[in-house]
Amino acid sequence: MSVVTTAVPTSAPVDAVPDRRLATRLLVAAAVAALACAAIYVLFVYTAIGQRFDNAALLGARQQLPATRISDTDQLQRITADSFLLVLVLIVGFGWVRRRPRLGISVAVAAAFSVLFTDLLRRVVLGRPALVDNALVQAYNTYPSGHTATAISCALALVVVSPPSWRGISAVVAGSFAWFTAAAVQTAGWHRPSDAIGAAFLSFAAVAIMAAVIARYRPVGTGHRLGHVPAFAVLSVVWLYCLAAGALNAERVLRFLANNDAAAPTPPGILSDAYRVSTNLTIVAVVSLLATLLLLLGRADLDQPKPRASAPS
Asked: Is the pLDDT of residue 285 over 80?
């Protein structure tokens, strides 16, 4: 007796397609970040109280331990054009290894653009009006920070090019270097707080725009978020700690600035408080941007390659 077997139809794998909704969300986030960058410039550079806070934080950094300032300066001096180029090559190589060369090249270009555009803004486009007379600080424009843009744009680019299951780890590891750099440029006395925060938002806008272009025109797959929960836990702890630490000193600094004119000498304690507020606020901003990018991308695996062709049996 013969046995009749019925073939069970199997569904063909669904090809990944571009994700317009993800692209739209990334573009909206980029627009908000760009507006925030502009707003920070106007608030801290084109208002007297903003300049006074910036200058107070800069002077407060000079009161920190010399060993700390020297250590941070040494670390910052390692961020050079050569080291930046090496990191960009590694990001492109990571994308190539993942069979996503367009993604690797795109986010590397976004990181390079953010740094070059930052330098253009600081050196050529933007100015710093003399609203506050303070002979103890430099009067020329320092907005935005190139070193901060270098570190943060590379960290964000690595988050985008990483597989979804590794994105959380990338955000914590690369992000910790980014927020250290953003704070170190202030401790070393190289930049005011607005310079670092503005550069962070500018870098986010550049990377988010390029990620949106990839999501709009290249296939987007779905991965796993194994590392997202512990990453968000770490980022949340850092965010809450820095927010609380900054808030403890912010009220005292703002009250002094509001109740005293620019000609009044600023007590050393207020200067130190302003420095602590600025560095903690900077870290809060960087962590917020990292968490936002993680939330926007979710499980999306950008620039999904075609499945490898199976060998004929």
From this structure: yes
